[in-house]
From TrEMBL:
UniProt xrefs under InterPro entries: SoxD, SoxD_sf
GO MF term (any one): sarcosine oxidase activity
GO biological process terms on file: tetrahydrofolate metabolic process
Transmembrane domains' residue ranges: none
Signal peptide from the UniProt entry: none
Pfam families noted in UniProt: SoxD
Record protein name field: Sarcosine oxidase, delta subunit family
Length: 106
């Protein structure tokens, strides 16, 4: 079972307390963007076998959205952090790189 620590209330929440929100750190495109950019924003998502950044909501807890970094292959959770960021915290990226040599953020 997937267990994520909510960065807001500090609870180790089981998957049944959470709601998945898809890929984190999407770059949004709106009016003025090209058809290709808007298409990719709507439909194209990463689907890695390995490190992935996701949005989760503590729906049966505090109700807040947060981001989680985990491995889709091993289900190892690297960490969770506020959803109010445009990219993962440096400490988290460094920890993932130390654990997965060769991995880089985008
Ligand atoms: Zn919470």
């Amino acid at each position: 079972m997937l267990i994520l620590n909510c960065p807001y209330c500090g609870v180790d929440a089981e998957e049944s307390e959470l709601s998945a929100g898809g890929e984190a750190h999407l770059k949004r495109f709106g009016p003025g963007s090209s058809d290709g950019e808007f298409h990719d924003y709507l439909f194209m998502r990463e689907n890695p076998k390995g490190v992935h950044f996701e949005r989760w909501r503590h729906s049966n807890g505090c109700g807040k959205w947060f981001h989680a970094a985990r491995c889709t292959q091993t289900l190892e959770v690297f960490g969770t952090y506020s959803a109010q960021t445009t990219e993962p915290p440096k400490e988290l990226k460094d920890a993932i790189t130390a654990n997965r040599p060769g991995w880089t953020w985008r």
